[in-house]
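Example 9 (inverse folding). The structure is encoded as follows.
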């Protein structure tokens, strides 16, 4: 089996590639990644020399590059992990999000269909559902109600994917996952930002009152779910991926402070993000009952492992925070 993983130098894409190469000996991986600021070849150190892996440097919205790749290779599946994903950046400049997340998705779908790719998986986000109140959960039937240019671009991509199934009978599936954490996450995201700022003795900027709630999932649980959906999911289906692990941003910060033995005074409230959704919570029942997947990693122990990883890998994240080239 040969799989194209787009965005494979990023946080989740590289985790998926490492997992495939470690656990699926009959699967070859082509990594299609243009190496944006969040893509780091060091995420795959030790894997880049595998005979079952190669990296093609190109944007997913580059039709010529995608067409050339799929025409020249016998590809069984595409997993589209590539995305502009930081909400704050989308508020400042939406255009790259539309280009990558919407146009790029259409290019992959179009040429995947033209060249007979057997299955396409779109990695989406719970943010396409918008914001929840104090109770209830997002199911796959929840209406799409995105709140930011980022989530709107991902919702648009999801609709394109489903349209290709309904119009062309293309074998597609969508995963919508909650907030990820773990090693190799770019340090603009909340958990790695707080950990690395803690190591550096810098303050922790916390949006608003800190009571925005997210369902947190360890990245390796997520990629295992993606593989289950790719290989066994029903065509045209959406599968929510969540760990039933809700915590407010303030609760996350306090737990990290405890693990890092830092005082609460390092937390500095900052003005809230524009259009900041109050609560996300995922119901993963479909994934659990249809495919037998369950999150395996406990919150506190996986968070502790994440803190330890960032403490032990300063040479990986410090260049990213200073704008230096990534270290390999």
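The amino acid assigned to each position is listed next.
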């Amino acid at each position: 089996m040969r799989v194209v993983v787009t965005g494979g130098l990023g946080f989740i894409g590289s985790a998926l590639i490492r997992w495939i190469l470690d656990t699926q000996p009959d699967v070859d991986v082509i990594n299609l990644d243009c190496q944006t600021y969040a893509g780091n070849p060091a995420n795959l150190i030790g894997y880049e020399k595998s005979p079952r892996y190669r990296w093609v440097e190109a944007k997913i919205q580059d039709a010529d590059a995608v067409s050339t790749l799929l025409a020249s290779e016998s590809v069984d599946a595409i997993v589209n992990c590539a995305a502009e994903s930081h909400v704050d950046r989308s508020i400042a400049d939406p255009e790259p999000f539309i280009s990558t997340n919407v146009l790029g998705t259409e290019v992959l779908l179009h040429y995947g269909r033209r060249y007979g790719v057997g299955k396409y998986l779109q990695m989406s986000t719970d943010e396409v559902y918008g914001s929840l109140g104090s109770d209830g959960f997002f199911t796959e039937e929840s209406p799409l109600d995105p709140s930011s240019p980022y989530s709107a671009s991902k919702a648009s991509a999801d609709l394109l994917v489903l349209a290709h199934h309904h119009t062309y009978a293309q074998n597609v599936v969508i995963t919508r996952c909650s907030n990820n954490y773990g090693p190799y996450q770019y340090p603009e995201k909340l958990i790695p930002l707080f950990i690395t700022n803690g190591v550096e003795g810098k303050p922790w900027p916390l949006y608003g009152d800190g009571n925005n709630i997210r369902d947190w999932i360890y990245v390796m649980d997520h990629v295992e779910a993606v593989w289950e959906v790719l290989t066994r999911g029903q065509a045209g289906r959406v599968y929510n991926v969540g760990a039933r692990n809700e915590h407010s941003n303030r609760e996350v910060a306090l737990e990290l402070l405890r693990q890092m033995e830092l005082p609460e005074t390092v937390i500095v409230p900052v003005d809230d993000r524009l259009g900041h959704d109050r609560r996300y919570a995922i119901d993963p029942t479909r994934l659990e009952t249809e495919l037998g997947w369950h999150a395996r990693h406990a919150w506190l122990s996986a968070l502790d492992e994440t803190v330890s990883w960032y403490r032990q890998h300063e040479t990986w994240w410090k260049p990213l925070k200073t704008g230096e080239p990534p270290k390999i």
